[in-house]
Specification:
heterodimer; A: mainly alpha; 2 helices; flat; B: alpha+beta; Immunoglobulin-like; four-stranded antiparallel sheet; 9 strands; about 50% strand
């Protein structure tokens, strides 16, 4: 149980760190770059969802 | 392979995201300002305008000059043609133009221009020591720098000489 709590803490920290870096660096992107990033994020989460669905999660 | 296809696609999207952050962050038009006021030199880097809300400032003694070097870097695949205009302002009114020229910067090239703000020229126009704003304009950007001129009496006292 303790291991899963540590995993959860690690995953949340990673997502928070990535989110912070993305929020900082997004300021330097052009408008088309931001749009492509948005599409890629949608695609990434969509494919991840599909992957987990196929793995019967 | 088919089993992990969607995982690979998600990883490809993530790597593309990183690539866009690096490439798009690098591409664009960047400007750097070098200011020499008295013996004090400073460089205002392009990311200053994204990171800080305050305008950079420079100061020197009334009667001397402030030297500016403005560098435009074109990190694009096409030529960048712009009118570079620098002017000095006080209390929201333009005092005079310092520089006015059209520049063409080649792809992945740089162009530098220079001008000087001379306090004697300000004095000749009836202005006195105090704060001024130097406004630099080019296509798509406007930069403002506060320049203050003070009298020698207003200057910070010199530190006492160190004992031998």
């Amino acid at each position: 149980m303790r291991t899963y709590i540590l995993y959860g803490f690690g995953i949340v920290s990673c997502i928070a760190g990535m989110g912070y870096l993305a929020a900082e660096y997004i300021k330097f992107l052009s408008e088309p770059g931001k749009l492509v990033c948005l599409l890629l994020v949608v695609g990434m989460f969509g494919f991840l969802g599909k992957y987990f669905e196929e793995m019967s999660w | 392979m088919r089993r992990h296809l969607f995982l690979y696609l998600a990883i490809a999207c993530f790597l593309s995201l990183l690539a866009i952050f690096v490439v798009d962050g690098y591409m664009g038009i960047y400007d750097t300002i070098h200011i020499t006021a008295g013996e004090h030199k400073q460089m205002i880097e392009p990311d200053h305008w994204y990171r800080h809300r305050y305008d950079p400032s420079a100061g020197t003694v009334w009667g001397s000059k402030v030297f500016f070097t403005y560098t435009v870097e074109n990190r694009r695949f096409s030529n960048y043609v712009t009118l570079i205009q620098a002017s000095v302002w006080q209390e929201n009114e333009k005092v005079f133009d310092l520089f006015f020229e059209e520049e063409s910067v080649e792809p992945f090239g740089k162009a530098s221009v220079e001008w000087t703000l001379d306090s004697n020229e300000l004095e000749a126009r009836g202005f006195s020591y105090g704060q001024y704003t130097v406004k630099i304009e080019r296509e798509g950007a406007e930069r403002t720098i506060r320049v203050s001129f003070h009298t020698p009496e207003q200057a910070p006292p010199k530190p006492p000489p160190r004992p031998a």
